[in-house]
UniProtKB/TrEMBL annotation:
GO cellular component, one term: signal recognition particle, endoplasmic reticulum targeting
TM ranges: none
UniProt xrefs under PANTHER family: SIGNAL RECOGNITION PARTICLE 9 KDA PROTEIN
Pfam short name (any one): SRP9-21
Species assigned in the record: Tuber magnatum
Biased composition range(s): Basic residues: 113-122
Record-level GO BP terms: SRP-dependent cotranslational protein targeting to membrane
Protein name: SRP9 domain-containing protein
Spans annotated as Disordered: 76-122
Domain of life the protein comes from: Eukaryota
Signal peptide segment: none
Residues covered by the SRP9 domain: 5-77
InterPro entries, alphabetized: SRP9-like (IPR039914), SRP9_dom (IPR039432)
Amino acid sequence: MKLTKTPQEFVDESLLLLNARPSTTRITTSYHAATAGKGKLTLKTYDPVSGALVKFRTSKIAVVGRLVAGLNRLGRQQARVPEPAVTVAEAPSASGTSTPIPGQAAPPEAPKSKKKKKKGKS
């Protein structure tokens, strides 16, 4: 059993296990709620043939989003679906607006807000 310390380490180790035994490896998640609104999320990648187990636990909500993205990668690997191609978006220009895509209408401009003066001692 390998208890991983980071979400990235869990995803990397799980990918290795999935590559080695894609037909028998299983990924499971479990959540145990506590009384104070906090809970523990546990993820396991297990292969019953070899007995290999990769485990990760967390109670931090910020980590859960990273884990969901990692599970997406693991699911794609297990289903033998290729990773989508990543395209680099064009950076905004100096004026803060981006160049419109040909054939697409330009987005409407946001209304400018007026600042109110604070009343009180000067």
